[in-house]
Amino acid sequence: MKAIDFVTRTSAGAAQYGSISENDSMMTLRAEPGQELSLNLRQSEVNGYARSGGDLQITLADGRVIILEDYFGADGVPDSRLFISADGYLNEVTLVEGGNGTLYAQYGPTEQWGKWSPSEELIFLDEDERVAAIAGTGDENVSMLGAAALFGGSGLATAAGVGAAAVAASTLIPGDGSGSGDGRIAPSVDQEGPITLGGDGVGPDTDSVTLTGRAEPGSTVTVTLGDKSVETTADDEGNWQAEFAGDTFPSDGMHTVNVTVVEPDGTTSDLAGPEITIDTTPPETSVTQGTEASGEIFNAEEFGQGIELAGSGEPGATISVTVEGVTRETVVSESGSWSVTYEAGSLPEGEYTSAVTVISRDAMGNSTTVTESIAIDTVANAVSISTSQIEGDGTINQAEEADGTTIVGTATPGAVVVVSVQGVEQTVTAGGDGSWSVTFAPGTLPQGTYEAEITASSTDAAGNVNTTTGTVQVDTRVDNFALTSSSGGADGVINAQEAQSGLEVTGTSEPGSTIVVQLGSQQVTAVAGADGSWSATFAATQITPGTYTATMTATATDLAGNTSTQTQSVTVDTEAGLLTLNADQIGGDGTINQTEAQAGVQVTGRADPGATVTVTLDGVAHEVVAGANGVWTTTYASHEITEGVHDPVLTATTTDAAGNATSVSDTVHVDTRVDNLTMGGGGFAATSDGRSVINGDVAGSGFELTGTVEPGSTVFVSIGGTRVEAAVDASGNWVASFGPGAIAGGEYDAALTVDVTDGAGNTQSLTDTVRVDTLVNTLDKDSPVEGDNVVNAAEASDGVTLTGKVEPGSTVTVDLFGKSYAAVVDASGNWRVDLPAADIPQAEESFDMVIRATDAAGNVSSVTDSLAIDTLVPDQPDVVGYFRDHSGNRNTTIETTDEDISIHRVDGPEGAQELNLYEAKDAFLNESTYHFLDAAGAPKSIPDGSELVITGTDAAGNANSTYLVLDEAGVTTVDLGSNAVDGFNIETVDLRFSDQTELTITADMLAGLSENSDTLLVRGGTDDTLTISGASKTGTKDVDGEAYSVYSFDNGSSIVVDDDIKTVI
């Protein structure tokens, strides 16, 4: 054992140093809140950690115990930081609590806690070397070095502390600062080796390697460590320092430090420094056996043999495996493999998945943690057989085995169960409620009476097996069942006397069986005694009298529910003789009608074969012998039957071989005529000339014919091809109802027949004819109306005439515009309706019309049609401008419209000439320009001062025109009273494009300008003059945002004039 040095430092930075004697088996150190404590220990020298209240117990490998008093705070979290340090390395200890209070240590780089001073560092070297260079300058590592007074070598401590190097010096090179004997400072390297650097958290981002030495001031020093080089310069005192960090931090490996010193005078020295080994790579670690990732699950058998977890890793690395708080440790072999075993009982039994934590740590302190999971299932599936529920009672009888045997039980939900009976296996999966059921095919169980063994076995996914057995009783037959008695005595026939004594039936069967004996509809029951015998007796009242042979059936049911049947023939004869009379079959229905009487009537019955039967009808006797089949027959001729309506008595008498006599009688109805047949009126319509007729209403609604007849008769009435049966009441009144549509439609004369059959089958008929007329045979409308089936304003102005064809003699009405118009119909069926102009609406729509005709028979027919009305005239064309060149006017532009545009040039007072046009639309301006063309289609110009009529015509032919006056030199006088404007509907006169225009308008002239309107719009300017004769100003009107005056004539017509025009009244 050795003494253990330690250093403590308060949160204020004050350090205290001490040592634990090798002779002390236990030592207590007080851990102050916020304190850092570093122990001079290696990881391998610590055996374990434990918590005792607020104290931390550290057990060393040599058995000594260090107690850190009050290390844990009241919340269980450490109040101090704990480090271990040796060989120039410093690792912070982080404790993780496992099961049962066990603590596990994780060694890693320190984390920043408070304020640290680089001059106060606690890194321990080996036992002889107590000066260390720092390991890490970043925020992730805290470095510690002992004070110079404790470890010696204050010069190195000061130099190495600044810059936080991670290399320890093994020897101090003494020097008085004067260099060599000649005053020159000889190049040197302070550190000696070997030196190692590694462990968790160590790397280029958090650590550095610092090398120091001596050289002539101003010397250039190049230090090479592995594949990295750092260049520095010796200071004025001859000290130099090279730090490897970040990008210059060496890669892993064993490196020799090479130093090249170039002094100011050019002298070059090559020095060899210490060997430095760097290892910052965590050991490779994997788990290859025993976890869910390797596809393994431990069942009860495997669990009892112990569980082995294995894997691969870095040779020599320590492995710590923890499952369910139980830890097993090992070392990776030279071949790179490792394994640990959890012996039986070290882990809890059951069915569960647990986390597996594997921590691997190499000699340099680098660690790798691998987390896997282990699956343990030591619980087998539950399985049971419900033998008492098999076939409801735990016994399988013949019927139950014949339709398959169902075995039921329970198991763990979802478990697969293998069920075996008589060497036959079936597999089933238990349902969500744990129940299972399998059915074995008929014939699986041998016939007989015995116990059959049933086995049910289930193997879970882990391989755990659970097997259970049970037995079921098999009984598939009734034993020793037989009939031992016979019926009817010596002759085998039960006569009347024997029947009065009853009938006893005896036999044998399986003891305890129930026997049901059935004869006819009667049953008696017996139970087999202990010796298997049984007896059942039919009472006298249970034996049906008569002469017959019946099959008696005995059915035995044993205690297992199996059945067996025996049969026996039984003959009964309790009658003296047989005699029947089929009176109700005479004439087929017990009545003799006229036809049957004329053909002769047959009388039949039954008797014992060979018996003589005497038959008497209406006083006439016949004698007949029954045939071998017992049937007798005799026929009465027509002269033996009295005609009319009466009910004679029919009698038959016979005596059997024993002398027993029997007689039967009945009455027969004779009816040989039909009485009281008449036909009354029908529910027919009447034509305009008073004839009866079946018209469409009558045929469509149905109708009735009536009459009288003998009560009980059947009446059929036929009209044309339709035959209906009449209803006949108790008084003989009959009604034949022909339903809607029963009579075929059309125009024809139909035969009318009444056919009667009375209750006795006698027949009689009545005949007639009736007229059928169910339709208007012709109704249509002539097309087209007004040439194109659209009535425009001009066509509506003088009224509209509708015409068509109809069946001659009919009346016709036309429903249109909410009115009904009566048509004029001539003798040929031509009809005509005149629609007054006043009734035709101002609209642009299609109006429904109904044309309805009623013919002479009262049939009504209608057709629907529509009449398209378009009496809304379009707006007059609105002129935008025109184009004039040296030769005249080339085109005119108007606002674009949907109507067809035509332009006429007034050619003198007698007429106007239509111009050929080319249309060019400007969608942006919504304008259309119409270019004037010659006969060849080439552009042409019209003279200045031309007067144009621009007309817009819609699809219905309604037209509206604008009278446009173009400019010319001098005064232009416009004549609107000439014949040139005839045929146009001019509602606008546009003088805006002509200077000095004079226009005169009278009431008569205005009336002749348009058939569409009695209002004229006049546009123009201040240079234009309008003379209105006979009108007066009646108001103003806004037109497109401009003021216009309204002048009215006595006839109600008016002129709307631009206020810019000079108006003379």
UniProtKB/TrEMBL annotation:
Residues 405-476, 504-574, 705-774 form the Bacterial Ig-like domain. Transmembrane segments: none annotated. GO terms for biological process: carbohydrate metabolic process. Residues 266-289 are annotated as: Disordered. InterPro entries: Big_13, Big_6, Ig-like_fold, SIAE. Residues 793-868 form the Bacterial Ig domain. Residues 274-285 have a biased composition (Low complexity). GO terms for molecular function: sialate O-acetylesterase activity. This is Putative RTX family exoprotein. It comes from Roseovarius nubinhibens (strain ATCC BAA-591 / DSM 15170 / ISM).
